[in-house]
Write a structure and sequence with these properties.
Number of strands: 19
Largest sheet: 9 strands, mixed
Strand content: 15-25%
Distance between the termini: 71 Å
Shape: elongated
Number of helices: 17
Length: 531
């Protein structure tokens, strides 16, 4: 009598045992880096993340054959029999789906992105620090529940990775060991996780709060009590806004060039900027709706405070919609994040912002470039008939505005903006360089910003740089840039920085030719606000 062999089912990598992770953190707290244990935990988590990604893709209609790996599609009908064209493997989607159910193998976009990031990052990690930080980040993520108005963490993603119930996972993560020897960054990540997990603590099932009558309104009131908000009150706020950005320099893109950005006409309306203060009256966060750039400039301290994060993003949404209703708004807003900022990226995505790095022909990403403040190996003097010099202050402000508008093909730069820049405490007229023709016509410009850091390092930044199209054959942009580099070096800068679009951009090639190298990848995120 013949026996029908049992069907070949997919095998899902199990969740990782708590004991392995606990031992890893105990050793790390003592400054002991057990490479074998790091690899065992890391590769076990990676296998689990891969299983999670495959299971979620299978739910959408595509899965790898468990025998040969060839991709198989299905129509989500549980009775339909799937068949692999490569090896002949067969199974109904209903039977396959049962292997996924009740295995903690489901999640939405932010979770999939977090796990996909870990799968991409961990195999490339070379040092014990890189491995530990990657492990720590993936263990401290969140599931989100998103509404039209706001989003909130519901439960830790570690429940998908660690072999324990939700309440056990929360307690386990609470009691991981940290010490003086802990890898830099893990204790800070713990604080971010602890703050964000408060809702999961209130509702042990992790999602019961969703249906709680008035739950979101109660949450909004708690946010308003936790931090005092007020609108921008004028240039007297600039000093404290810049000071907060300097303190958060490692996590903030726009710091040195804030005198330029805080002079923009967006701040003509105080309602376009918000400041949040803690109960001690200290500035805790700020945000500016930069209408000229269609960008939200904001500084939110890291490690993040869940209440503060939500307060800022709620205000951004409200202001964006209010601007649209007034007829002066724009249909979409952008924010940036360093590619390494997994927490901020999750925060942006949870609040409806989409990364623009993989959008086909419309893809957009940036780079943060740096060079040491050494002299240029080659001099770039102005060609005959041109002079490189500082701007003649307010007397030439209107001519500068005209040139700036022509270079960028935009009317965003306005005379009042340019004049306000001249009055900023961080403005140095010797770093405001132009190249002019013999008849006095301005042909190119480059502005440098100099800023001492809390770490004692003096840094300089280039922003902005441009050359009129009629004069580009003379390479005057390079002349102006080289002059500002020279002046920043003379002024005591030890590091020079510039933000620009990625390698496809002409400006990138110019900066690269004068010694700037990519220090960080910068991701651009977009959120649309339909009218």
């Amino acid at each position: 009598m013949e026996h029908t062999p049992p069907p070949i089912l997919p095998q899902w990598a199990p969740r990782v045992k708590k004991e392995l992770i606990r031992r890893l953190y105990e050793l790390d707290a003592k400054g002991i880096h057990d490479e074998e244990l790091l690899d065992e935990v890391g590769w076990s988590l990676l296998a689990r993340c891969e299983a999670f990604l495959v299971a979620n893709q299978a739910r959408k209609g595509t899965l790898p054959c468990p025998v040969c790996g060839e991709m198989v599609t299905h129509n989500k009908d549980k009775a339909t029999r799937m068949r692999c064209a490569g090896c002949g493997w067969e199974l109904t989607w209903g039977v396959y789906f049962k292997t996924i159910q009740h295995k903690q193998l489901s999640g939405a976009g932010p979770v999939l992105n977090l796990f996909a990031e870990f799968v991409a990052v961990f195999p490339r990690a070379r040092t014990s620090r890189e491995k530990m930080l990657a492990i720590d980040r993936v263990l401290h993520g969140f599931h989100y529940w998103i509404t039209r108005e706001k989003s909130q963490q519901t439960r830790p993603t570690a429940v998908n990775l660690i072999d324990a119930r939700l309440n056990e996972v929360i307690d386990f993560l609470d009691h991981l060991t940290y010490g003086e020897g802990s890898t830099p960054g893990v204790r800070e990540q713990y604080q971010e996780w602890f703050t964000g997990s408060q809702f999961a603590r209130s509702f042990p099932c992790g999602t019961a709060w969703i249906g709680k009558p008035g739950g979101m309104e109660q949450r909004r009131r708690r946010l308003e009590l936790a931090y005092q908000f007020r609108e921008y009150s004028g240039t007297q706020d600039h000093e404290r806004m810049i000071a907060l950005a300097i303190r958060e320099r490692q996590e903030t893109l726009h710091v040195m060039d804030l005198p330029y950005r805080l002079s923009s006409w967006a701040l003509d309306d105080p309602a376009n900027a918000g400041l949040w203060f803690d109960d001690g009256g200290r500035l805790a966060a700020w945000a500016v709706m930069q209408l000229p750039f269609w960008t939200v400039d904001c500084v939110i301290p890291s490690p993040a405070d869940g209440d503060l994060d939500q307060a800022v993003f709620t205000w951004i949404d409200r202001r964006a919609r209010a601007l649209l209703q007034m007829g002066g708004g724009i249909p979409c807003w952008f924010q940036t994040a360093f590619a390494r900022q997994a927490g901020r990226i999750r925060q942006l995505e949870a609040n409806g912002f989409t990364c623009q790095a993989d959008q086909g022909e419309d893809s957009w990403s940036k780079v943060w470039m740096q060079r040491d403040a050494s002299a240029l190996l080659k001099e770039y003097p102005a060609p005959p008939g041109f002079e490189v010099r500082p701007l003649h202050g307010a007397a030439e402000a209107a001519a500068y505005v005209e040139l700036h508008q022509a270079v960028f093909g935009s009317k965003n730069m306005q005379l009042d903006w340019r004049l306000r820049m001249l009055r900023q405490p961080g403005y140095d007229p010797t770093l405001d360089v132009v190249v002019s023709a013999t008849d006095g016509q301005l042909a190119a410009f480059c502005i440098g910003w100099l800023q001492p850091g809390l770490d004692g390092i003096v840094r300089g930044q280039i922003e902005p740089l441009g050359c009129h199209a009629d004069f580009r054959r003379f390479a005057l942009g390079r002349v102006a840039l080289a002059e500002v580099i020279r002046r920043l070096c003379q002024a005591g800068a030890t590091e020079l920085w510039v933000e620009t679009d990625n390698y496809r951009d002409t400006a990138f090639r110019l900066y690269h030719s004068l010694g700037f190298r990519v220090a960080e990848d910068v991701l651009v995120f977009r959120k649309d606000y339909p009218g």
